[in-house]
Amino acid sequence: MRLRNIPRADSTLQEHRLVVKRPEEQRGCWRQVFRNSNPVYIEIGMGKGQFLLNMAKKFPEINFIGIERYSSVLLRAVERMGAEEEYQSLNNIRFVCMDARGLEDVFAAGEVGRIYLNFSDPWPKARHMKRRLTSVEFLARYEKVLGEDGRVEFKTDNTPLFDFSLEQAKEAGWRLLAHTYDLHHNKEMNEGNIMTEYEERFSSRGNPINKLIMTRK
Q1: Residue 1 pLDDT more than 50?
Q2: Model confidence over 88-117: pLDDT tens digits?
Q3: In what order do the strands lie in the sheet with 174-180?
Q4: What angle separates helix 136-145 from helix 159-172, to the nearest 10 degrees?
Q5: Alpha-carbon span 54 to 158, nearest angstrom
Q6: Considering 121, 149, 157, 163, which one is annotated as catalytic?
Q7: 112, 116, 146, 160 — which has fewest CB within 10 A?
Q8: Which residues contact 54 (CB under 8 A, 6 or more apart)?
Q9: Known catalytic membership, residue 163
Q10: Which of these, 82, 75, 49, lies nearest to 64 by C-alpha position?
């Protein structure tokens, strides 16, 4: 998919009150950013924000941080929040424009309770394997910021990527709590499921959605 650059994205995000401009300065202090002691959950590669905004609405007792590498994509999320009345009063959400490879510079050990990965770039070429967000390289990064009972939840319609993710979890020594190759027909795992834009689109075409939940051993 070709990413369309939006010239005003950087300046708009710079001025937005919920976009954290120097996130590395908040390392170890994210609960102070939210001014409460609630758990901090993050979504990496949040896209246009549908999942995260609805999670923040449903769970006001959780602090949510959306991480997106591309400013033009993140812009769509913050604009959506401002345009749709149901999201305008949310105060338990923040946004960060950054590369997920820098997680350890932004979050202290044990500071994150949960990491959501939704329809991540599959990076299909073998030479790009380390860029996949469920590779052992990224799992090592997650392990350094997750709390003792922290977990990663991953959804995708890409079955080869899902199989890869299961293998990587095993190789990295993570414990698989649950997984399915057909989320929307798995009553237990689909209960309370909040869909992303991609999930709605793919599932409407009859594509099964894969999901796994894993935690550190």
Answers
A1: no
A2: 999 999 999 999 999 999 999 999 999 999
A3: 93-97, 63-68, 40-44, 112-118, 146-156, 210-216, 174-180
A4: 60
A5: 23
A6: 121
A7: 160
A8: 194
A9: no
A10: 49
